[in-house]
Amino acid sequence: MIMKLKNISKSFGANSVxxxxxxxxxKKQCYGIIGPNGAGKSTxxxxxxxxxxxxEGNIYFKNNNIDKLSIEKRARLxxxxxxQSNSLFNEMTVKENLMIACSQSLNIGWHFFKALDKRKNIxxxxxxICEQIGLSQYYNHKSESLSYGLQRxxxxxxxxxxxxxLLLLDEPTAGMSHLETKQIVSMIKKLSSSYTIIxxxxxxxxxxxxxxEIYVLDRGDLIFNGTPNQVKKSVLVNDRYIGIKK
Length: 246
Fold this sequence. Notes:
This protein is of the alpha/beta class.
């Protein structure tokens, strides 16, 4: 087990957002977190990364309590997140974006950018990540020239450049075409053989395709967890969430 969330609770004033959430995450598996808007999914992600602190409960990562660790210290331990918002250097190429991310993971200042191009370890790592995210043919293309879907793939590349033990993906297919979604799904499947992944996603076809286990939140409560097939058959989940979406 790489992460354990034990009785995690969070409130904002009188509004209870998470109520004693218990989740166990094993290595090199892909987990899905689903639920309607306001279920607590984003808050849970923020608590895992350290952007928010829980009111009650504990977080264990690689058997260590990380409750009091900052965002930066959690990142150094191996918790990395790809966000919905664009954080790319649009004027730079795919290669250059990844080189900067790789330099950060090796504690090399990116202001020495010209020198990075001569470091074999940086170049090798950059190209390997480019292959992992399916962007080899766009290696020397500026990120601003990429389609939205390809930019999202590059965003994931920046996240995995940090050597994550746990990769959090926040709605990675939001706003994508059917073809772009298929490409992201293919990438996630490939990455899940090397990384532990937690994905928040509203597209159930995506969740069913990539997740081995799914946790279902509703109004701050964890109401169900199980395999994709078990979720599909759950009367409770269909009544609370999936049935509403149809």
